[in-house]
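Writing this down once: the sequence line spells out the residues, with the fold written below as integer tokens. I am pasting one below:
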Amino acid sequence: MQFTDLKTQYAALESEIDARIKRVLDHGQYIMGPEVRELEAALEAFTGARHCITVASGTEALLIALMALDLKPGDEVVTTPFTFAATAETIVLAGARPVFVDVEPDTANIDVRLIEAAVGPRTRAIMPVSLYGQVADMDEINAIAARHGLAVIEDAAQSFGAVYQGRRSCALSTFGATSFFPSKPLGCYGDGGALFTDDDRLAQAAREIRVHGQSGRYQHTRLGVGGRMDTLQCAVVLAKLGRFAWELERRAAIGARYRRLLEGIEQIALRPDRDSVWAQYTVLVDDRAAVQAALKAEGIPTAVHYPLPLDAQPAYAAYAGSGARPVAARLAARVLSLPMSADLSEADQDRVAAALRRALAGGATQR
């Protein structure tokens, strides 16, 4: 069993993917070829965002968004510690300080009730993470940002395609930043990402930053990075877009089926005003190592997203501050992600659920 089944997906899309790649090989424009703008236009139409800027990775998307905001040393960005390192990493690389706020115990997304108390005179932005494929409380976050004159960057690396109150993830705030890492709900075959905004000025800044700050060839008007998404990876995503609506339906159905099969076992909650693309399907267990070992013995792969909050990581200890974030710490000790992809069969899903129940029969957390 595959944790993320990319082989079955490729088998279904082989002709489309191969044709798209061959087209790039034929025209030979490997950097900023026509597929780059074609993909950006398709993603603008899909999300409803005015501008899409494809970039080299989800990490580059976050970094470029922060650079476009022209942060100064000592500026602060409020964010969550329960996320992949890139969230805080890019804040530090941009010269700012991450200010960590605890998360909700049921969704693992940033707890909006705690954000405003973390806003100070140096705060410039809020960076919520749409974890596991479900968008955070963006209306409330945007309202806080408006009261304090802040930008909002949605770290949507795991939620591309998700819907929040009738609107798509990535088109909900000042910037939306996503990843096309192969295991994401919409992935390429290497690194890739995209940045979304409705702001013309910020979009222009992001486009210049991704090509070393150039407004024209060898005209460097701002500090930039080598942040382009290459043409071949754009071609792969374009080939996958034709199946993406079906995949989103499948992810929703598989997520709902997991919820039924695992009734009585603690699971990440889904808010009623939004959906999830289930980038990971995550449960909460005690004695996680023993549960993982039991599942592995039955041939079932698992993963932990994430085993140590960022405020407890050595690289970010200087930004931990004096505040406690106990919910993030408890989640980090208990979360366990199960096999999840659009091509997960019911038979394999039944195997996962049955094996998990056997593993928990010794007394792990159930409800």
